[in-house]
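Researcher: I'd like a structural prediction for the single chain below. Treat it as a standalone chain; there are no partners to consider.
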Amino acid sequence: MNPLERVWAKSPDPGQPRGELLTEHLDAITHALETLRLRVGHVELLPERFWEWAALACLFHDAGKVPQGFQRMVANPSRSHAWGQRHEIYSLGFVDHVLSHLDEDDRRWIGLGVVTHHRPLTGAECRPGHSIAMQRKALPDPAAIVESFGPVDAHTADALAVWLAHRAQAPAPDPVDETVLARATHRLLTDIMNEWAKESPDDDAGLHAVLLQGAVTLSDHVASAHVPLLTEHALTGQYPTRLRDSLPGPLFAHQNAAQRVEGHLLLRAPTGKGKTEASLLWALTQIRQLNATVGGQPRLFYTLPYLASINAMAERLGEGLDDPGLERIGVTHSKAAGYHLNRALSDEQDDESTPIEHAERAVAKANASRLFRELLRVTTPYQLMRAALAGTTHSSTLIDSANSVFVFDELHAYDSRRLGIMLAMMGLWVRLGGRIGVVSATLPDALARLIENAIDAPLTEVAPPQGRAWPVRHRLHLDDSHLTCETTAKAITRSLEEGRSVLVVANNVADAQSIYAALKATALNLHGEDAAILLHARFRNRDRAAIEKRILGRYASGKEHRPGLVVTTQVVEVSLDLDFDVLHTSAAPLEALIQRFGRVNRLGKRAAPAPVTVHRPCYAPRTGDKDEYADKVYEAAPTRQGWELLERHDGHTLDEQLFTGWLNEIYASPWGDAWREAVQEKSTEFSESFLGFDPPFDDSRDLEKAFDKMFDGIEGILSGDVQVYREALKEGVDRKNRGAGKLLAAGYLLPLPNYARGLARWDHRLGLLVVDATEEDGYSTETGLEPIQRDGRSVYQPGEIL
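Model: Treating it as a single chain, here is the predicted structure.
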């Protein structure tokens, strides 16, 4: 009997008699790597033999699972049979022995891909045994390797060496045993650590190394999950014809112009005039070009800043690209599984599946996208930016993004830190062969120039022909009274009495809750159930999803007009595709205001321009900060400058063509100069700290935590929901699908910023902030989280946590 038929790479799945054979897994990862190579194509900055190194690293990556200790562990997966050794270290022995015909540099690169596919090479001093360097301290010589990794059946090891040589098309190897493998392991491990433990051998080697790590880890995850990478694009050559056939008239001039662009794009066009379609036409041209020049099948990343807008875009693309089930379109963001679950639960044609069964399928689909399955993915820029963290978790994102096409829909300029990081990443993506497309109605020239500097290439600018009028959709009114004043409530009441739909956008939660409380009864009395809705960031996930569904059901663009009131915060700016008759908003930086304007008379079909009223905010310092902020949220300087600019247009009609000129004026001011310096400083700082990849394989967990703090808050839970949360988790455990249980439980979570950690109790077992509130006291499915008292003092104030 062939001894390799008894060597497993994985433990058996529940109910199965045997695990996956090692040879089966090594064949599977080799196939996955070849598919990856065909998708990525030729990357100019990579060494000529990169893909050969990656293929051999995949073939050998788990050879170190042959010791009897590992086999006992996978056959009996319990703590009592834990092996305690790193199989990837022992795999190096097979690399060095079987591939002895290759030169040392080749074996070193192949070994590097092998030994870094699970653990960091260096760092992690606070976690004993976590890094390869710390493991090596217990392996000072070959004898220690024999003692640590043995016993190893010589007949089985020899059979594996012969099998590997055959697959690698290498000469037949000399016989192996524990001693031979120990010497080979020690020699190659020492060589790799001497070369890579401190710094990269040259300027580009660090990037090459993390891309190699990414190729191996991506292929390993795909092979282990048995989820093949797709090789057919959702965006095909039939798209232009499908688009033309779906329209009542010809394409817009800027859509045709975008399709002709070969290279990076800046598209400026009015809302409702086919920007998304123009960006897809441009992307198709880039995909064809890249396919012709570098081979491969370029990925298309369509990025948007907010989760709800991503979900809506996925639906829109599914319809436009004839993929309503999203089989070829991925959704990748932190709540993607929740999106798939909500989608399934709202499907009226669905079967009688239970919530946990829906959750299992939603987790599987989200995991498939996380494994880079689809060639077209809708995501946030911040998900892609995590590639800078590299390591075993994020280097896969880096290799997957090589030779890709990126569409950035509505970049936000005023957050200098995030923008600086994004610009640095754009530069890296272009170095890796990518094409950048930026789509906006109002992008300031200052940001366009920063993008060009970052990618070291020009943007081809496309816009509707000069002289063609842009839609006039709004009439501006300024009001010196605050949004929460009684005079504002009277004006909103008049609009409701006239049968209009009114959107009110406050800068903070406290103001939104106050306005809603004052106007709710009026709206309901005039227009019935669902005529008054409140939306802000401090609702449980499940409640927010239900509220967004109600809002879309009544006020979505293209729906029959219905009167009513929606009070919200900045969460509405680029999140939901809505169309109201009237807007009242607190003043904010111009970009935010322009997005709010875009939720009113969105399609430009009202008989007259819709009134948009901007109210003067309250300027005050935040707690512990001497600087003033508009309603304690936005920087005072750009908000005041925007107000002064709006004063020149008070009472006038507006079109979006004006907005770019307004923004150019703001960004040409002293505040704009300081903003530009801050963006460039953050971009340079991020490039030097993260994108040098030197050393490339240091432990990145602390960096990952710091990165998360920059972009994400923390999640909290009501004290009244702790028990049901635990029950949902248990339901997943009972079905041996913890991910599905976590997804069901996630409906009870509340998003909170990091500084909320000091405002309530941290539950270490759940890993969550527990806020002292229940649906009966402190929280409402209608109004969200209210002020909470603990120990006689307030621990949460709406408007304070934003």
